[in-house]
Amino acid sequence: VGYYRRHPLIANISNLAFECWHIAITSGYVVIRIVKLLIIVVIFIGRFDRPLLAAGIGEIGPIRLDNFPHVFKMDLLATDAHRHPYIERLGMMYMMKLRHGSNFGRKSGSIW
Questions:
Q1: What pTM value is reported for the model?
Q2: Tens digit of pLDDT for each residue in 78-109?
Q3: 10 Å Cβ neighbour count for 12?
Q4: Distance between the two ends of the chain, CA-based, in angstroms?
Q5: How many CB atoms lie within 10 A of CB 77?
Q6: 40 within 8 A of 23, measured Cβ to Cβ
C-alpha cells in the first residue's frame, strides 16, 4: 500500500502521530485503572467479611469504580450464548448415559 501513496511522508507522519496517540490513550487508561483499583483497596481494606475480588466490591450505590469486570462478564456471556446446539445435545446425551447407565441408548431403541 505504501508504494501507491501520493505523499508518503505525510502518511508516515500521520501514522506515527496515531501510534503515539494510541500509546498515550492506552497508558492513561492503565494508570486510571490502577488508581481506581487502589481506591477500591483503600476503601475496602478493613472488610474482613468479604474477599477483595468478590462481586459487588467497588460498587458504591449505583456507581461502579471499576467497570472492567462487568464488561468482561458481558463479553463471556455474549460468547457463551452462541454455542452450537449440536454440542449441547451431545452433552445432554452423555449426561443421560451417565444418569441411566445401560438403560439409555440401547440397540433396540436405536433401530429405526
A1: 0.53
A2: 877 776 777 778 888 889 989 988 888 777 77
A3: 12
A4: 60
A5: 9
A6: no
